[in-house]
């Protein structure tokens, strides 16, 4: 009865969402009383394994150090987890583009269903998850011998550091002749990542153009905020999709969320309604975003944004 | 090259779902249904591949009740050549769906399978990946661009923080993200023509697929509603409230 968690990492750093997934694993472990093992797969994983070993609640860090796992491509990573999964009752990963890519493959190879993007642990086999773009919450029970689960990181408070797990190198044979990594273009930014930022300021269709998103820069600088966007702004071609906050983009829950020129479509709300404090600036006083905002300002964003930047 | 496109009938994305009063499920009676938006993008991509001379034949497949043939007709009107309907009135989990599609892939031997990255009803985001695993094929999920090069396809993927390009050996499984293309509308003459295109009908049992699932839906409830706060009249008041009331900024 133990749990395997896939650790995520980017550019040599353990991703912060791994600590949230371990938190979900701890809630399950409380029910079944088992160990939590963290799988670190990649190339040159020493520093990441060390960081992973410090997460509270982790018993063992398993390290698969091999260039085949460098970008955690789905085919070899899923094969690795599938091999290991026989020793576990639960396999967890973050509901990120890595977890969503890899875990369904694992589930299929083990001939079990997967439970996607859980937001709460009710018991070791009962979980809650949003469906219909967050317009309904389903409670599901898995009777599978292996529960394969992706976790919405923002729904679980990250575990602290201070643990001292043992680190064990896996002796594995791995190859991948089906897929190859070609390149990655990551948005280079000095700003925090939208998924983990303390403050997020997002623009919608009301911004009018991609150029106008610059109006958010000064405010974001002053608040140390990440910049996001609604799907409407992405669809209109103002900004790239990786900025999208919403059910089809990133799910965020910062301390402060400022929605500018965003009407508040259901699919956007699904991505940000768990934020602590929500501010909406919109010229349409009927905009649905005001129904979820703690502070609503009806006004023209082209006047309000420069004024706000000055006030901060 | 033969392209298989899997599509799903779901609630129209403009319709707000309601939860049944006994919390057993969502209420879909008398609800407008449509082609899942990500599946629409999948069909569009296949059609564009045919227009570019890369695809030679497009087969649309769906699993669902009799009424799901409407969505197959939509796919046929958009440019699919023929369709396969696996009829089932019972809802089928992603794993069962992937098992059925694996069987269809075995029969049809397509070089490329395109699916939506997720259906907007269950929001599972699993079927394409499961199909790839069960067919032992490589996968390019959340695709925003496809480039073909002999026996390979370059798939640009929407990942957290940017884009990733992977090279897959064909045959391969691709799932679509929003920016792959903008789907066209079907023209009336094409809708008329689509009525004459063939649809093969079969069932999971005929295909020898066990669709039983280890997952039980216990309850469906509406999400916790957030209450509206206050209106502020100026930026000054907003900043003051954020500083002193909400203590969200310093």
How would you describe this structure to a colleague?
- The complex is a heterodimer of chains A (312) and B (250).
- With 312 residues, chain A is an alpha/beta fold.
- Chain A is 26% helix and 29% strand.
- Chain A contains 8 helices and 18 strands.
- In chain A, the strands form 4 sheets. Chain A has a 7-stranded parallel beta sheet with strand order 7-11-6-1-4-5-12, with helices on both faces. In chain A, strands 15-14-16-17-18 form a 5-stranded parallel beta sheet.
- In chain A, β9 and β10 form a beta hairpin.
- In chain A, α3 crosses α4 and α5 packs parallel to α8 (301-311).
- Chain A is globular and about 60 Å long.
- In chain B, a hairpin with a 2-residue loop joins β9 (139-149) and β10 (152-159).
- Chain B has 6 helices and 15 strands.
- Chain B has a single domain (2-244), classed as 3-Layer(aba) Sandwich (Rossmann fold).
- The chains are: A alpha/beta (312), B alpha/beta (250).
- At the A-B interface, α3, α4, β7, β9 and β10 of A face α3, α4, β9, β10 and β11 of B.
- β18 (295-298) of chain A pairs parallel with β15 of chain B.
Q: What secondary-structure arrangement, pairings included, does this model have?
A:
The complex is a heterodimer of chains A (312) and B (250).
Chain A: E1 3-6, E2 9-10, E3 13-14, H1 17-32, E4 36-42, H2 46-53, E5 60-65, H3 74-84, E6 90-94, H4 97-109, E7 114-118, E8 120-123, E9 126-131, E10 136-142, E11 147-151, E12 166-169, E13 179-186, E14 199-203, H5 214-223, E15 226-229, H6 231-235, E16 256-260, H7 266-272, E17 277-282, E18 295-298, H8 301-311
Parallel strand pairs in A: 1-4, 1-6, 4-5, 5-12, 6-11, 7-11, 14-15, 14-16, 16-17, 17-18
Antiparallel strand pairs in A: 2-3, 8-9, 9-10
Helix pairs in contact in A: 3-4, 5-8
Chain B: E1 2-7, E2 9-11, E3 18-19, E4 26-27, E5 33-35, H1 37-51, E6 57-64, H2 69-78, E7 82-87, H3 94-108, E8 112-116, H4 127-134, E9 139-149, E10 152-159, E11 162-169, E12 172-176, H5 188-194, E13 199-202, E14 215-221, E15 230-232, H6 235-244
Helix pairs in contact in B: 2-5, 3-4
